[in-house]
Amino acid sequence: MNHKIKHSQHISKHCLVCGVDNKFGLKTRFYETENNELIAVFRALDQHQSYPKITHGGISAALLDEVIGRAIMMTAGSSTFGVTIELKVRYKKPVPTCVELKAIGRITKDSGRIFEGTGELYLPGGEVAVEAEGRYLKRRIDQITSIDFAESEWFEPEEILPEGIDL
Q1: What are the angstrom distances between the C-alpha of 148 and each of 43, 82, 144, 151, 152?
Q2: What is the pLDDT of residues 21-76, one digit of tens each?
Q3: In whole angstroms, how far apart are CA 71 and each of 9, 81, 151?
Q4: How far from 163 is each of 3, 46, 88, CA to CA, in Å?
């Protein structure tokens, strides 16, 4: 299924999931769809493996935690984050390293300060490898870190926005 893209989300310099200057990071890009879902595109490295050529389950969990927690930015803006309260992960298939992978996250309930969401990590052939659901606390960036982060490390990626992404 092709998901039409309307916007890309900010990234940072040092984050494990999206950091462009983190040499062991996933360097994930996040795209908001017209259906109010958030798609993450990334590539796990061999440094992220547990068994040979298999991505560590903690990396898969971190990616899903991020894509679900970031989904709140689609309605609350790029300076509102989801801080994890609870995350439940179900592993269905091994996730390979060194291939492009995609995940999708969405908000399923928004109760003001607390929101809930679900997400899936997809293999290149389209099968769901990992599923997650979580609860998050909404926090503004100034409630989490210094203003210096927002000014020097939180920015829109400089790349061409894809028209659509297939999952």
Answers
A1: 29, 20, 12, 5, 6
A2: 999 999 999 999 999 999 999 999 999 999 999 999 999 999 999 999 999 999 99
A3: 10, 9, 22
A4: 8, 30, 32
